[in-house]
Specification:
heterodimer; A: alpha/beta; Beta Polymerase, domain 2; five-stranded mixed β-sheet; two-stranded parallel ribbon; 7 strands; B: mainly alpha; Cytochrome-c3 Hydrogenase, chain B; 3 domains; three-stranded antiparallel β-sheet; two-stranded antiparallel ribbon; 10 helices; globular
């Protein structure tokens, strides 16, 4: 079992200035990183810490914070049977690089985050809505999106 | 008119069987699909948005509806997350934990009966569907005895389960467990010699272990690709490490 401290040490040495902080909450290891370094961080974790699967990629809207969005990447290593949560914060309208090139699973997951929270992924090969239809207005998982929805124009094709 | 070009075909969204209404735009070169663009939002109901405005207990019935074939299992995943967040994992009674496993495993069998029989139905093997649904109904009857509902029980809750089980449940569950191995032989007999079914599953839709990891595909598909991995073994919850069971694996990751 690789310790969180070992991962942090390696990460700090390889991707300079990327790591902001880390914590362990209810047994879950979390590393907070600089959003601009996300591809380097993910590539390092895949190649050097054997995190071979991106279990999930999602985001949370903390409306009211200066940087309202928090990207959450959940990684898994089959070799060490361990998970790692990587988080990065983004301001409204701020973009983050796609990690499609690191794990292919990121393609659809990033489309979902784009669809429901309106976060843009730079360099994504196919950034379209995935659950809602083309032409839908708004991003429902934003906390300022009303529960009853926003009236949508309906076109029948 | 001799120019060769591919044909674009719209598949769905109203497939007659509508298992998870899916629309796919297919590009065909003769009989071969060369490209497929899926549109999968037709069943998206915004459960996360709905849950934003509810308490932990109020959100529980939503988890039934995430997948009606595995309602109890979704109840459990949600309840375990809430319990972890509240740091009350150690306060869950042992009897509740055992009941959770018991009910979830029954539900798992029912869910498997549904997927494999409707999948066989869709690709041309109808008979096994009737056998599997007969036995799925037996399980739902047993689950109803314990939870009061066939499909949407909301029975496993943060903190434990909604109620204790009764003698009738134990009697029915015992009888089912006794009868099931013979029933599995029936299904095998109906499928394993069905040439159409074999042709449409063997060496079809293969996925390697490496591809599974790249695309974050777990569960039966990962095991079919040869990786001996099951969450109940790798990171046991609900004391799964105290149960004795095997992880079945395949080799080439095909449908069969």
């Amino acid at each position: 079992m690789v310790q969180l401290s070992q991962i942090l040490e390696g990460l700090k040495g390889s991707v300079e200035g990327a790591v902001l902080s880390s914590e362990t909450f209810r047994g879950q290891d979390v590393i907070r990183v600089e959003a601009s370094a996300i591809v380097d961080v993910m590539t390092y974790l895949r190649d050097n810490c054997s995190f071979d699967m991106l279990t999930d990629l999602t985001a949370v809207d903390y409306l009211g914070r200066e940087k309202r969005f928090e990207m959450v990447y959940i990684l898994y290593s089959f070799e060490h049977n361990r998970r790692l949560h990587v988080k990065a914060t983004l301001a409204d309208g701020e973009k983050i690089a796609t990690i499609e090139g690191v794990w292919k699973a990121a393609n659809w997951l990033e489309r979902e985050v784009y669809d429901l929270l309106g976060i843009h992924f730079e360099g994504h090969s196919d950034l379209r809505r995935i659950l809602l239809w083309d032409g839908y207005e708004g991003h429902p998982l934003r906390k300022d999106f009303p529960l009853k929805g926003i009236p949508q124009k309906t076109t029948y094709r | 008119m001799s120019e060769k070009r591919n044909m674009i075909v719209n598949f769905g969204p109203s497939h007659p069987a509508t298992h998870g209404v899916l629309r796919v735009i297919l590009e065909l070169d003769g009989e071969t699909v060369v490209d497929a663009i899926p549109h999968m939002g037709h069943l998206h109901r915004g459960l996360e948005k709905l849950a934003e405005h509810k308490t932990y207990h109020q959100a529980l019935p939503l988890t039934d509806r995430m997948d009606y074939t595995g309602a109890l299992i979704n109840n459990l995943g949600y309840s375990l997350a809430v319990e972890k967040l509240l740091d009350i994992e150690d306060a869950i009674p042992e009897r509740a934990t055992v009941l959770r496993v018991l009910l979830c495993e029954l539900q798992r069998i029912a869910a498997h009966l549904l997927w494999f029989s409707t999948h066989a139905l869709d690709i041309g093997a109808m008979t096994v569907f009737f056998y599997a649904f007969r036995d799925r109904e037996t399980i739902h009857d047993i689950l109803e005895q314990a939870t009061g509902a066939r499909l949407t029980p909301s029975f496993i809750r943060p903190g434990g389960v909604a109620a204790d089980i009764n003698d009738k449940f134990i009697e029915k569950a015992r009888a089912f467990v006794k009868s099931f191995p013979a029933l599995m032989d029936e299904y095998e007999l109906l499928l394993n010699k069905n040439k159409i079914w074999l042709k449409r599953t063997q060496n079809i839709g293969m996925m390697s272990a490496e591809e599974c990891k790249q695309y974050a595909v777990t569960g039966p598909v990962l095991r079919a690709a040869g990786i001996k991995w099951d969450l109940r073994k790798a990171q046991p919850y609900c004391d799964y490490d105290s149960y004795d069971f095997e992880i079945p694996t395949g080799t080439i990751g095909d449908v069969w």
